[in-house]
Structures are given as structure tokens and as C-alpha cells.
Task: inverse folding
């Protein structure tokens, strides 16, 4: 999936010699979590809005080098890895670097989450199952085999929880009646946490899941 057309090129970068007053003004006038700092046209890190109250306007960015965070993505980074980088760094803006560590542009979290929501997992009709099993005992190939053995199409599956060596997986299935598939999963010792074939669960997953809701509101 190509997400490069979502790259923003209108956001400013800041130089290490710029005044902190420019940084403070930017954060006060925007909702972005970070700004990118460059030196001799190369990326050196990001300043976070979380540190805003510690910034002094009469100083220079170079006086806050110890505050710089260093995370970014590149042109060949997959959209899932981009989304993970957003989440891991609790950011809503992410610099995209070229081969020479020059800043080509930025990804906005809302745009990337929008790509995720526009995938067939959300748009294709079907039913949703949420299952759980020991982290050492499940496999995606087994999940596919269980679904397809019921003459049903597996639209998608991803891990939505991992705790105490138990993995939780959300599965989208191209089926109207989930009863037989649910029974098949139980025979393979999967615990059924949720099974529904209407759109309310999908709407809830879009708007209220911990993952999306947390990072859309950074």
C-alpha cells in the first residue's frame, strides 16, 4: 500500500540556530506534537510539545539539544510500521527522511489512520470475531485454515491485545452466520471474546478502540 501521496510538504522545519520563540509560537498555533530540527539540511531530531513549559523564548534551539527525540520513517517504510512509529512515540506528526537524512515531508497521524480504516477489513461486508489463545499456541495459518474449512473467506486478522502470554486477535470474516465458525474455533481451543455480524462492532472499533482513540487524540 503506497502512502507517500499522504506526505505533507507544507509544514516547516526548524534550524538549530533558530530562536525558541519560533518553536513556542508554532506549538501554540498548531495541534502538532513535535517539530523537526535540522542542521546543515540534515535531520537531527524533534522537539516535543510536551516540553513546551520548559522552553525559554530568548534561547536558541541548539540550547535544547538534549531534549531532541530521534524517530522518523523513510520512503520505503510500510504503512503498518509508520502507524507503529506513531504509537510507540506518542506522536501525531512524523518526519519522512530521504537517503541523506534530509526531511522530505511529514505524515499526519489522522491521514495514516484513515488509510487503515479504508482497507477492506473495515469496508468489506462480513462478520467480526474476537478470539484469544496462548501466544505460543496460535498461528495465522491455523486461523486461515479454520475459516476457510467452513467455505468462508478470511478478509483480515490482526492482534489487538497481548497480556500474560495470551494473545487477542480480531478477525474479519466474509460470512453472514458465524455460528459454525465459532464452534470450529472452540474445537481448536480458541476462547471467543466477541462474535457479531452487524456493523456496530466495526463502528466501535473505528471510533472507540483504545489504540485509535488514544493516538488520534495525542
Result:
Amino acid at each position: 500500500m503506497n502512502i507517500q501521496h499522504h506526505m505533507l510538504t507544507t509544514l516547516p522545519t526548524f534550524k538549530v540556530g533558530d530562536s525558541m520563540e519560533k518553536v513556542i509560537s508554532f506549538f501554540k498555533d498548531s495541534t502538532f506534537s513535535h517539530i523537526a530540527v535540522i542542521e546543515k539540511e540534515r535531520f537531527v531530531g524533534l522537539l516535543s510539545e510536551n516540553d513546551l513549559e520548559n522552553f525559554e523564548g530568548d534561547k536558541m534551539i541548539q540550547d535544547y539539544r538534549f531534549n531532541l527525540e530521534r524517530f522518523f520513517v523513510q520512503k520505503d517504510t510500510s504503512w503498518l510500521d509508520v502507524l507503529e512509529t506513531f504509537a510507540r512515540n506518542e506522536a501525531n506528526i512524523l518526519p519522512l527522511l530521504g537517503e541523506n537524512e534530509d526531511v522530505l515531508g511529514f505524515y499526519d497521524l489522522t491521514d495514516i489512520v484513515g488509510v487503515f480504516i479504508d482497507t477492506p477489513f473495515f469496508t468489506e461486508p462480513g462478520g467480526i470475531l474476537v478470539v484469544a489463545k496462548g501466544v505460543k499456541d496460535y498461528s495465522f495459518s491455523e486461523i486461515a485454515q479454520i475459516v476457510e474449512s467452513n467455505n468462508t473467506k478470511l478478509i483480515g486478522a490482526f492482534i489487538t491485545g497481548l497480556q500474560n502470554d495470551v494473545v487477542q486477535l480480531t478477525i474479519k470474516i466474509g460470512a453472514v452466520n458465524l455460528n459454525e465458525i465459532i464452534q470450529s474455533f472452540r474445537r481448536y481451543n480458541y476462547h471467543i471474546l466477541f462474535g457479531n455480524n452487524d456493523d456496530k462492532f466495526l463502528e466501535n472499533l473505528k471510533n472507540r478502540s483504545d489504540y485509535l482513540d488514544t493516538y488520534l487524540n495525542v
